[in-house]
Amino acid sequence: MTAREDYYVYVYIDPRNYEKFYYGKGCGSRKDIHLKDTGKSPKARQIAAIRKAGCEPIVRVIARGLTQDQALLIEATLLWQLGKFTTNLVAGHNSRQIFREHDTLHRNEPGFDFSRRIHFFNMGNYEHRCWDDCRTHGFVSAGYGARYRDQAKKLQAGDIVVVYLIKKGYVGVGRVLAEAVPAREFRVGKTPLRKLRLKAPKMLHDSDDLENCEYVVRVKWLVANKQEDALWKPGLFTTQLVRASLDNQPKTRRYIEDNWNVRFEDLLAEGE
What is the pTM for the complete model shown? Predict the structure, then answer.
């Protein structure tokens, strides 16, 4: 059985200014049904105002020969484009799952402007940063200078970070809560890093130099083991890079999932 292809999408236009104010989809005489609407909806009120001015709404079919699913998608797309100026009470079929909110164009939105990812993150215990500090206070840091800072800035809110401790193995899985900031700006609650008892004594080095200071990324730990409990076996993915994608490392992801009882696909979906 083939899908019907007699659906169309139509638009109502105000003849006083030629502005579109309503989109719909249907078949047969559906496009004309609103002309009989005498209720109090925004659409009915606009039709009444047009008639009061001695005019009639312009009703035009703008796409035809569609299946119902095609008509629904076109209708929803046009309604999103019209935005706050529409008199439609419903934004369109599945529009909240498909389209971004109109008032979010000023910022990068996960799922629209970037995809959440699973990141390998390479750490070490140095005088500038220490895994114990990270697991205790909820962050990762990436060394100093543009090479390391830029890698930290690639972590986006909602990403999953998997921490590797040099010469030890994997020690943690966390969800990124906020993008990287200079160490001097990072707070644990209301307490700045400089007032915490950190095991890395030089965490706040070059704090007034935005080119050479540490950059810190806030993380909510889902797994945060001590270094002596690091997870490792020969063949797992590792690299000298500060950050790398684990998207194409299924064996390593599966080994971590099985040992730590996490599912990366579920973790990414929970951040939607």
Answer: 0.61
Task: Phi first, then psi: give them for residue 162, nearest 5 degrees.
Answer: -115, 115
Query: Could you list the residue range(s) of the whole structural domain that residue 247 is in?
Result: 118-270
At 153 the three-state DSSP class reads helix
* 8 A C-beta contact, residue 22 and residue 32: no
String of DSSP letters for 189-246:
TTEEGGGS--SSTTTTTTTT-TTTSEEEEEEEEEEE--GGG-B--TT----SSSEEE-
Q: How far apart are CA 228 and CA 219, in angstroms?
A: 21
Q: Domain end: 46, 71, 99, which one? A: 99
- HSE-CB of 74 using CA atoms within 13 angstroms: 20
Model pLDDT for residues 40-59, shown as the tens digit of each residue: 899 999 999 999 999 999 99
Give the angle 24-30-32 at the CA atoms, nearest 5°.
Answer: 90
Q: How far apart are CA 38 and CA 12, in angstroms?
A: 16
Amino acid in the structure at residue 63: A
- Residue at 104 is within a domain: no
